[in-house]
Amino acid sequence: MSETGVWPGYTLSTASYVCSLLDPWLVTTLDLCAHGLSYYRKDPYAFTPLLDGRSLLLSGDGDATAREIAAFDRRDVAGFEAYVECTDRLGRALFDSFSDEEPHFDRFDAQTQALLRGSAADLVEQYVRTPVLQAELVNDGLIGTYRGPHDPGTAYVLAHHLAGRFTGVQGAWAYVRGGMGSVSQALASAARAHGAQLFTDCLVTKILVDDSGHACGIEVKGRSVKARVVASTAHPQTTFLELLDPSALDAAFVTKVREWRSTGPSLKVNLALGELPNFTSRPGTDAQPHHRATIHIASSIEYLQKAYDDAVEGGESEEPLIECFLQTPTDPSIAPPGKHVLSIFAQYFPYDRRDGWSQTKRDAAAEKIVAILARHAPNLPNAIEHRQVLAPPDLESRFGLIGGHIFHGELLPGQIYEDRFATRAPLRHLYLCGSGSHPGGCVSGFPGKRAAAAVLRDLSA
Ligand SMILES: Cc1cc2nc3c(=O)[nH]c(=O)nc-3n(C[C@H](O)[C@H](O)[C@H](O)COP(=O)(O)OP(=O)(O)OC[C@H]3O[C@@H](n4cnc5c(N)ncnc54)[C@H](O)[C@@H]3O)c2cc1C
């Protein structure tokens, strides 16, 4: 989502900020580019500065990436190529499963299932040995997930983040010009062109159910709106426990909804900057290739493990997982001339931390993150002109993300494929079209596409 008016002259990608999983079929079929969607591939794609003055920059340029990796360990050049081959294969397999009408994890062969059920650390360590390279690769297995790098199932999260082919390149991520809200705007424009009427800022308070126990409309602003079908993109706990009377549902199903794991560890900090971060390892405040990459801070898998362990002990990471992205070096349109926007995504700051959340804790978390970044880019603190902090409870209150979980619930074995919520709810004429259904989180359009296909099939049956 992009937001204007938070700070004068800026458009913020308030929550999500990069795109890969958006279904290319939707982009073409709905002609989203004619409706304003414009993007570029994020390249270079990953940058990690180190405190000893070295740094690692990965890009689509194979030779340049090989040189970067060889500067740490020559043996990892071939290992990295083999890793990319493996994750391309996994990513392609996942992508091919994302439109499945009846998703089943056993569509994958036994070896793939075993890999996906394993840990991101195990997967990466099979291929490369340089600590900073390992951390840069493992990072994708932890995004949004309240698990550590050695925990089972984080390899699935990693593969999920490499399943997209929005730009035509398997696993590549893109920046959407104008911010992530441009995806919603393009979809809205395409929908209107096909005759849809859209109403925003309307809180749905109830899903209406008729005498036969079938969904037949919604209640909004105290008014009943009748409909042949209802499709909900709200979190499954909102849909089934708040908007419906759970007594209308099967008890075992209600138990599944109540026990759905949806405790988020992610915190977002958005900064407006007067100048670009000046990294000690790659000096300069003029836009350079590393300013266009996702910037990671973890120097090793141990760093990430410690970040997780700190949170599990009841508080938050002393030194968090941090990934940041600067939109402005390639899209100056979203900030006043000469100014920059830095999106920071950090873990682990759990929703259910033992000592609770307060404004002081939000401010302290943001200050800690900035101080860690400043070890690598000392000009950062003084470059900050505006700051927005969204802790997990803010993600819940602003976006309806129950438990602050960015994906409407963990994307781990036990909550994926046949174990995620079915598109067809256990109530006729009600469909789930959000990330509580297969294939889960990220800006992808797949849950909506699958729901639309189910509605069309059911209405024409
Ligand atoms: C901080 C953060 C960073 C992220 N970064 C990325 C990223 O870089 N790239 C990426 O691909 N994904 C990212 N994600 C994940 C991505 O945003 C989600 O997976 C995606 O938006 C899911 O889309 P959805 O339609 O399923 O649900 P949502 O986007 O959660 O939409 C559900 C909508 O339903 C509305 N709603 C809920 N209840 C009601 C009600 N009662 N009445 C009316 N409306 C209601 C909510 O307000 C919300 O607008 C991020 C998420 C967060 C929070």
Helix and strand arrangement:
Layout: E1 2-4, E2 11-13, H1 24-29, E3 39-41, E4 46-49, E5 55-58, H2 62-70, H3 75-97, H4 110-117, H5 120-125, H6 131-138, H7 154-161, E6 174-176, H8 181-193, E7 204-209, E8 215-220, E9 223-226, E10 230-232, H9 236-242, H10 251-259, E11 267-273, E12 294-296, H11 301-312, E13 321-326, E14 340-347, H12 359-374, H13 380-383, E15 384-390, H14 392-399, E16 430-432, H15 446-459
Parallel strand pairs: 4-12, 10-16
Antiparallel strand pairs: 1-2, 3-6, 4-5, 7-8, 8-9, 11-14, 11-15, 12-13, 13-14
This protein binds flavin-adenine dinucleotide (FAD).
List cofactors, ions and other ligands: flavin-adenine dinucleotide
Counting DSSP E segments of at least 2 residues, the number of strands comes to 16
Helix content: 25-40%
CATH class of the largest domain: Alpha Beta
Oligomer: single chain
Task: State the low-pLDDT regions, or none.
Answer: none
Question: What keywords describe this structure?
Answer:
15 helices, three-stranded antiparallel β-sheet, Polyamine Oxidase, Chain A, domain 2, binds flavin-adenine dinucleotide, single chain, alpha+beta, 16% strand, FAD/NAD(P)-binding domain, 33% helix, 461 residues, seven-stranded mixed β-sheet, 2 domains
